[in-house]
Amino acid sequence: MPLPSLPAAILSHMIAINNVPPPPLHSLPKLKMSKYIDYGQLNALCHMRGLQSSQSSYSILSAHNMFIKQYPKIFLKKKTRLPKLFKQEEKREPTEGTEELQPQQPDDSHNIAIHVKKARGGPTLYEPKKFEEKLVEFLDILKKLPIYRTLREHRTVWKMLKTIPDLTSQLTDEHLKTLSRSVISETWVKGSTVVGNDGFYIILKGSARPQTKAYKDLIDENESTSSFIPQSFQGFVSNEDFKNILAEMHTPSCDPMLRQWSTFGTLEVTAQTESDTKEYSVITEEDCEILKIPAKDYVRLKSENIKLENKEKMKLIHKCPYYEEWPTLSICELVALIKWKKFPPGYVIVESGKIISFVAYINSGYCNIYRNIVGLMKLQPKKVKKNQKLVCMGKLNEKESFGEISVLLQVPFTCTIVTGKEVEMAIIEDKDLFGLKDSKCGYLDGREKYNQNSGKQL
């Protein structure tokens, strides 16, 4: 019986396959042994007795517990490597007749920038900046508008201004830091007249001749010479070349010429006459670069500080116990007379039996109240001795005041006031307080009412 076509095709295909040789055998890939497994311990653990025997359930359980106990030991723990401890070598003292080796400079033989700088006369990469470079950098910063300067540039200007004695002797560090954010540089050609009645000027480059010989301080009215060379400028520039420049430059006693780092002008804004204008004016002898601190900026800064200080004084008085109901207008009159003063620890502010010369409001710290107490001490039968001691009766803490009754009524103190630690007070002197005739009655009424309620007389 003939086969169908499909089985015949399959049969012929199977016969053909038998004539084809089998494919070559491929070797299995080698297993990579782990670095963190102890294979010797693993082999011993797998051949542990009792795991494969079926004698009793107790022996199998004990073998199982032993296997679980020994199982973590097949894993190797990674060793922690501690950093090396470098021993500090002792510095050897050079023997006599030998020179100490100098630290080796970095090899710059292949650095083209070094050779270019040397050829042009500039400093190398390892030398500090010279004074001329710092001055050029300072002038470049001042050419920018203050709003375009970076924080680093503002700090550089502040450091330079701190080296000028005419500024540091009359302005606080905080005021100088604030003013340094608005200073500018002006360029004046030879023969120009610079009127310094609208600010304080510092000559950075060039020279000028004053129209008058005498000059005033930038704030006070005392006459003094404005030509000044900063004595502390060497602290900002640690270059030997600049020290030589400072040795050559000196404060002239007879020569009225204003040279580099000389100052003129004022920070006080007042109505000035023509003679006052000439007093602050100079004529440039050559092209000059002059730094200007506007007087209006200083006036604005001073007014803002006065407002903040008056606000702090008013807040202090308002927090004192018997001033809480006082009207703001009356407290403003006291604020105008207040001065800040600090006392060290253990300072006797007023002694018992004396009249104090000021009214005090404690801002920080505290004061102890002492009173003289006379006691009798028995020495022998029928004999006693009087012994006088200062006994602490209490404390005056922050936001408390004293001295009003003693000043206004000229009544001596019945106790002694001594500072317990450093105390900052706002004080009003008696000569200023007696000028407040309108506030005197309210002052007394409030103080007497407070004394009646508290039973305290200071």
TrEMBL record:
Residues in coiled coil: none
Specify the Cyclic nucleotide-binding domain's residue ranges.
Answer: 322-433
Renumbered residue ranges of the record's region Disordered: 87-110
Q: Which domain of life is it from?
A: Eukaryota
Q: What is the name of this protein?
A: Cyclic nucleotide-binding domain-containing protein 1 isoform X4
Specify the species: Acinonyx jubatus
Phylogenetic lineage? Eukaryota, Metazoa, Chordata, Craniata, Vertebrata
